[in-house]
Design brief:
By secondary structure, the chain is an alpha/beta fold. It is built from 6 helices and 15 strands.
Length: 306
């Protein structure tokens, strides 16, 4: 299934060293590689002189020091956050304390939906539950600094509070974890929702910016076409799930084994959550049925004739 997306697995940005990746934008990668973070979370410095920092990253003193060193002699006026996973926002307090900059984001971390009976907030460990922005941004709202303007784009799906930012003067979008060139995005209920994720992809597909700067990996070039690849990939994944369900009722682990061929064992749990996200969406649309609320341990069947 991943062969249908032209992934870019290259990445040569050394950890905690600033590099200009496009005019008026410098990138600094945190040294936190892993199966979900690729080579590390990428923080961005926008502008020159009076600058903004987007996604300060994990609570890592070396990374915070690298960011502050990169802007030595400059004034940080704004801090932007795409979402509140622990590899993106926990460095905010230290950067804010050092710079006095205001923090802008969609809002605090929250679930995409209410918990079902018996569910727990099992993903809270990966979330920055303490984060609060100074300014909560609405969809389409713009914030301007010295030589730059960012437009807030609500893009829920990966998290309920995910927000991308269009850099108006540079024809690019800071896409956070919603669109990445190295991998598809994990959608894990109840933190995220597949219906929201697909709607957010459609929203970006209607825009014209050619370049995306993601939270992990290299810039995404020819972004509108790449987004179409991601949409097609998700629809293909859905078709594979429905094909398996066409053979009879089953559970999510069985579907993962049938659909995710050659999967890295470290990603089995994430694949299960992503499949669960598809199930929630399919049940809501009346395509798939289950007994009671859709849950990670449920049994699913085609809804034809019910």
């Amino acid at each position: 299934m991943s062969d249908d997306v032209p992934f870019d697995k290259s990445f040569d940005l050394a950890p905690d060293r600033a590099k200009e990746v496009t005019p008026r934008v410098r990138a600094v990668a945190a040294n936190n590689p892993g199966p979900f973070t690729f080579k590390g979370t990428v923080s961005y410095i926008i502008g020159r002189g009076k600058v903004a920092i987007l996604d300060p990253g994990p609570d890592d003193d070396a990374h915070v020091a690298a960011l502050l060193d990169a802007v030595r002699g400059e004034t940080v006026t704004h801090i932007f956050v795409t979402h509140t996973h622990r590899d993106h926002s926990p460095a905010v307090p230290k950067v804010k304390a050092a710079t006095g900059a205001k923090v802008f984001a969609e809002g605090p971390h929250r679930l995409a939906r209410l918990l079902h009976t018996g569910e727990t907030r099992r993903l809270d460990a990966s979330a920055d539950m303490d984060f609060r922005p100074d300014v909560a941004l609405a969809d389409g709202e713009t914030v301007s600094g010295d030589g730059w303007t960012l437009q807030a784009l609500t893009t829920p799906g990966h998290t309920a509070n995910h927000m991308a930012f269009a850099f108006k003067e540079a024809d690019l979008i800071f896409s956070g974890d919603h669109v990445m060139g190295w991998s598809t995005t994990i959608v894990a209920p109840p933190d995220g929702a597949m219906s929201d994720y697909m709607a957010s992809l459609d929203k970006l597909a209607a825009r014209r910016e050619r370049t995306y700067l993601p939270g992990h990996g290299n810039p995404v070039r020819n972004a509108p076409k790449y987004v179409q690849h991601l949409i097609a990939h998700r629809k293909g994944r859905e078709a594979s799930i429905l094909h398996r369900l066409g053979k009879g009722a089953t559970d999510i682990p069985t579907i993962v084994k049938a659909v995710y061929i050659g999967l890295d064992p470290r990603l089995v749990g994430a694949a299960g959550l992503s499949t669960f996200a598809h199930m929630e969406d399919l049940v809501a649309r009346g395509v798939v049925a289950t007994d009671g609320d859709p849950v990670i341990g449920g049994t699913y069947r085609m809804a034809v004739g019910e």
